[in-house]
Structure formats: C-alpha cells, structure tokens
Amino acid sequence: MDNSARCPCLSGETYGDCCGRYHRGTAGPAPTAEALMRSRYSAFAVGDADYLLATWSPSSRPDRLDLDDDVRWQRLDILRTEAGGPFDDTGVVEFVAHYRASGDRGRLHEVSRFEKLDKRWYYVDGTTT
C-alpha cells in the first residue's frame, strides 16, 4: 500500500504515519490494545499475514494464516474499549469491520481480547456477535 494513502483503519492519518509504521516495525510495538486492533485490521486490508501472526498471542496463535483474496475490507468502527492502555496488562476492543466478498456486503462484529506480554500487546481471541 502507498504510504501516502489514507490508512485503512480510518484514523484520519496516512498509512505510512499510522498502521504502516507498525507493519514495517519502524515505530516499535503498538502502545495500546486499540492501536493494535487498528493495525491488525489494516493488516487484513493490505494482506499482511506475517504481521497478523506476529501480533497473535503465542497461547492462541495458529500455525498459519491464509487470507482470502476475495475479501475487501472497507471500514472499521471501534464501538468500545475496556482497559488496554499503556499501563494495563489486558484489554478488550469491540468493533465492527465492514467488507465486500464476491460482490456481497458483510460485517464482522467482534469483541476481541488482548494481553500484554514483555511490553507488547497481542491479540488473544475474539467472540463474534
């Protein structure tokens, strides 16, 4: 993705100044659970499976991740967060991710759990609603 393009997470920043810096590893780890959630959504949008696996908790990480090339992620809405700040060890982010697949529109509504290990946030798991 072009670094000057709008970031897929819709933060209002460019990809290069927002999630792209986490994907490239130039900004260090995401400082909050929400920042990690946004960067993971953007990784789905740009097809960065390596970043998704690297930010998945070792306790629940799959051996591999195959992304569906037919899914186009369109919009991310953060509904709420619980904890997940710089001084927390766990956090929750509820979101709705909108997508298109095979011409149809869809949405993924998930409550995701995050944990901080060795000063890095990781995605643990999520419950879809």
Automatic annotation (TrEMBL):
SUPFAM superfamilies: NTF2-like. Belongs to the UPF0225 family. It holds the Pfam family YchJ_M-like. This is UPF0225 protein IHE71_06935. Gene3D superfamilies: 3.10.450.50. Residues 32-126 form the YchJ-like middle NTF2-like domain.
